[in-house]
């Protein structure tokens, strides 16, 4: 249990009754843990998630719920982690009819806690990305994937960089990618020879089969899951 000590120290310092707890009459303090692994579905926004820890806090004389997200890596600037917490803030606000608040990230590798403030402009960008993703997922086809990013700045650490690069180099026409992105994809494929890239027919075949299987499964299930989002909790 490599992270147990970090979690215990955080509890002792931040939860009332802890051996190292000091409120210091702070304007915002934790009252208790409201829930853990809380499942939240928000049909109005078309998003769902599971909040690691939902905290009940008192801030400026008002009680509200606040998300705490646990990360097993080291602390550092991460737009993905911040976006996740901002979405949880939005979801808690919608579910419990409270004003939009802030949340926190706890990095278990080094014990650093980082506050995440919810900003309207950033949330707008996040929801736009959600809508773009939903658009393509609802019409998902092998030959109708969204265009690649124009700037590969964030692609180096992406889990799908290899497959994405192969798709751009071996399957798609080169003019569909920006020069920067295509050069990144080519460099990412530098370990492959021309003979390797010639197996694109094999790649295409299996990708098409996977898409056919996915489409068949979706058709068999019908519209039940889609309708679920349009129902109230009582109807579900």
Automatic annotation (TrEMBL):
Gene3D superfamilies: 3.90.320.10. Residues 7-57 form the DNA replication factor Dna2 N-terminal domain. GO terms for molecular function: ATP binding; helicase activity; hydrolase activity; iron-sulfur cluster binding; metal ion binding; nuclease activity. Keywords: ATP-binding, Helicase, Hydrolase, Iron, Iron-sulfur, Metal-binding, Nuclease, Nucleotide-binding. Its cofactor is [4Fe-4S] cluster. Belongs to the DNA2/NAM7 helicase family. This is DNA replication factor Dna2 N-terminal domain-containing protein. It comes from Strongylus vulgaris (Blood worm). The lineage of its organism: Eukaryota, Metazoa, Ecdysozoa, Nematoda, Chromadorea.
């Amino acid at each position: 249990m490599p992270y147990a000590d970090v979690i215990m120290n955080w509890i002792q310092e931040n939860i009332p009754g802890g051996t190292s707890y000091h409120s210091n009459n702070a304007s915002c303090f934790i009252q208790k843990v409201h829930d853990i692994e809380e499942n939240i579905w928000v049909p109005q926004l078309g998003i769902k998630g599971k909040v690691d820890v939902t905290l009940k806090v008192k801030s400026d004389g008002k009680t509200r719920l606040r998300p705490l997200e646990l990360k097993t890596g080291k602390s550092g600037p991460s737009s993905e982690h911040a976006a996740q917490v901002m979405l949880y803030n939005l979801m808690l606000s919608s579910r419990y009819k409270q004003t939009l608040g802030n949340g926190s990230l706890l990095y278990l590798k080094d014990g650093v806690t980082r506050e995440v403030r919810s900003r309207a402009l950033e949330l707008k960008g996040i929801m736009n990305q959600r809508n773009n993703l939903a658009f393509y997922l609802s019409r998902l086809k092998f030959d109708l994937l969204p265009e690649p990013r124009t700037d590969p700045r964030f692609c180096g650490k992406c889990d799908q960089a290899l497959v994405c690069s192969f798709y751009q180099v071996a399957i798609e026409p080169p003019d569909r990618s920006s020069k920067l992105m295509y050069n990144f994809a080519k460099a990412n494929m530098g370990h492959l020879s021309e003979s390797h890239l010639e197996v694109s027919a094999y790649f295409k075949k299996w990708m098409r089969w996977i898409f056919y299987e996915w489409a068949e499964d979706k058709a068999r299930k019908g519209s039940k899951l889609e309708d679920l989002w349009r129902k109230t909790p009582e109807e579900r």
